[in-house]
Amino acid sequence: MSLIGLDKYELDTPSLLIDLEIMDRNISAMADYYEGVRVDLRPHVKPHKCPIIAHKQLEAGAIGITCQKLGEAEVMASAGIRNILIANQIANKQKLHRLMGLARHSDVIVGVDSLKNARQISNAASERGIKVNVAMEISGGRCGVEAGEPAVSLARELVKLRGLRFRGIWFHKGLGRYKKVEERRKAHFELLRPVIETKDMIEDAGIDVEIVSTGSTGTYNISPEVPGVTEVQAGKYVFMDRVYKALEGLEPFDYALTILATVISRPSRDRAIIDVGLKSRGSNYGALVLPLVKDMEGVELIRFSAEHGHLKLESPSRELKVGDKLELIPSNCGTTANLYDEYIGVRNDSVEVVWPISARGKAQ
Amino acid sequence: MSLIGLDKYELDTPSLLIDLEIMDRNISAMADYYEGVRVDLRPHVKPHKCPIIAHKQLEAGAIGITCQKLGEAEVMASAGIRNILIANQIANKQKLHRLMGLARHSDVIVGVDSLKNARQISNAASERGIKVNVAMEISGGRCGVEAGEPAVSLARELVKLRGLRFRGIWFHKGLGRYKKVEERRKAHFELLRPVIETKDMIEDAGIDVEIVSTGSTGTYNISPEVPGVTEVQAGKYVFMDRVYKALEGLEPFDYALTILATVISRPSRDRAIIDVGLKSRGSNYGALVLPLVKDMEGVELIRFSAEHGHLKLESPSRELKVGDKLELIPSNCGTTANLYDEYIGVRNDSVEVVWPISARGKAQ
Fold it and tell me: Is B323 close to A263, i.e. CB distance below 8 A?
């Protein structure tokens, strides 16, 4: 049965809803900002994993997309998206074959941080008579080659490899612990200084560095101020979530994603149990942040089990009977979207579209 | 391409592997135990969500299965399984229709804990000229009706409803915090005392209580000692996981589930990055428990991001080069299985079967 036209409260639960108006506003607000700066937007699709949303970002002016997994990139390429940065390492034999297929049908750029890995990619490409675009990851503490001399030496080797086309560098470091804009700006500038110095050193070695890709939603208007940065990988602005809304300076972006839940039991006056548990809401790593209940006062999520959520009620602003529905704002939109097969797009509380989350589970 | 016959290290990653020999042993060990007691086994399928594994449990002697979601029950019924307890409340209108369909094609028993909800189910059943089996949940602190008088009054009402067939009661309470067998036994006996008293009170009121369903893997050999209990809902014994292995007294069951990962970067001598992150490993609620690295010493998972896992190395027992593979033992098998589309069943390190995790994501 098609869900189109239903009131959102007629939907079964748990369902993952997009408020289309808010999402459109988020996409426009980011696009408007990037119209005014010399740096490009290359949105990260990992928070939504959905080709049509990626297309909307491109239509709004993004130059391409960023993926974290080869499987995500394959899904996006098969939806007609060409300019894809895989901001990750493709390290095993099984994936090399897939990368070659992807390279033939898109302009994929793939991360590298070791000569051995780069040689494997180059050899596979040469065998097929093609060239694969690579961008070197500069270490932000996870993967990546150290900034400075180690990166310059690797760049010198990369340009010699016949199967590769060296396109530039990229850098990732989460800055979510800096809630204040000024602290985040300071940290980001400090982190990027050696990255930009490395870019200059590589160019001094006579190697063109066309791309310097970095950043996230949290630094969307900071990264473009850093001379040398060419593109920004913001992603979460599309939906936002509780963790990101806790960051100062992201006021242009609002919550677009919610989980529709049903009250399934009212064991006491101050408690309600809903049908959304750990298997229907993704978490962050480390600190425990729970979803928010949307548009209600006096209702707080206090605990989850696998398929249940526990609400504490204190003079709630509306009654919550068994069978009633409510919406949760996820703490982490990306890990939440990865649990669902489809988005239900809603406008004025009525279902307008159903979109498959085609890259859901594409962790390979 | 079929994966059958491949060596497990030839598989792409992340992949979810079952060691079939260990799983078979776990299923047999539990079945053997239940052969010897007067209580039945009704395995909970939520940790595996896979019909063929449920069938194996039934073939080994289980009397039926337990599901947590209607969507799981539909998947299991469509795989030919008839005797299904949904240990949960079906509380919204959308699900009532589905429940009626399921009731026509299986012997489903569904949880109830309120008269209003029971009336809805009864009315829907009566309209169709059928009867739906119900079992009343006795509160363990989440959903459920209070033990004692409140439960007896609800039972009196339930037997009057024409569309229902009252089958008994069930009770759930997680006891994972009691690591020692004796503490768990004591807690379980204390928790079940009012439940069994309630059963007696209902029978004194002239109402037959055919089913008293409770328990879990952690109390698999404790619940049968409680007079009055008729069946046990153990589930995690099939795979086990790090959280369950931390419980004393579960020695007959061993780790059968692993996540195959690839080392994608070696940023330094004491660190390795793998391609398994939050989106490829499910977590528990609350306390942070990380997966274990299987069959290796000197390697410890220390952190996750969305698609990356961070390993700390201290004289590791084997080398870990970029491209090398290793296996992780999940901290929580149920939330992990819910992230994958298929199990790859391995025997003697060679792929024997690929099984779809058909109830993956069936949270509705």
Answer: no
Size of interface A-B (CB pairs under 8 A): 175
What's the total number of domains in chain B? 2
Q: Which of A238, A264, A289 is the last residue of a domain?
A: A238
Decide if A193 is inside a domain.
yes
B27 to chain A nearest CA, in Å?
Answer: 23
The domain in which residue B295 lies consists of 8-14+252-356
- CATH for B185: 3.20.20.10
Identify the domain boundary among A238, A260, A294: A238
Would you call B69 and A307 a contact, using CB atoms and an 8 Å cutoff?
Answer: yes
**CB nearest B267 (choices: A117, A143, A266):** A143
Using one digit for the tens of pLDDT, what is the confidence trace for A132-191?
Answer: 999 999 999 999 999 999 999 999 999 999 999 999 999 999 998 999 999 999 999 999
d(CA B165, CA A251): 55
- Burial profile B307-338: b = 16 or more Cβ within 10 angstroms, e = fewer: bbbbbebeebeeebebbbbbbbbbbbbbbbbb
| CB A231, CB A41: distance < 8 Å | yes
Summarize pLDDT for B66-86 with one digit per residue, the tens: 999 999 999 999 999 999 999
User: Could you give the ipTM of this predicted complex?
Assistant: 0.96
Claim to verify: residue A328 and residue A187 sit in the same structural domain:
no
CA-nearest residue to A46 within chain B is B306
CA distance B363 to chain A (A): 6
Nearest residue of chain B to residue A92 (CA atoms): B323
* Run of H or E residues at A257: strand A257-268
- Examine residue B21 and state whether it is found in any structural domain, yes or no: no
CB contact under 8 A, B15 and A283: no
Q: How far is A239 from chain B (nearest CA, A)?
A: 17
Q: Which residues does residue B214 pair with via DSSP β-bridges, in sequence order?
A: B232
B142–A14 C-beta distance less than 8 A = no
Question: Which CATH number goes with the domain that contains A258?
Answer: 2.40.37.20
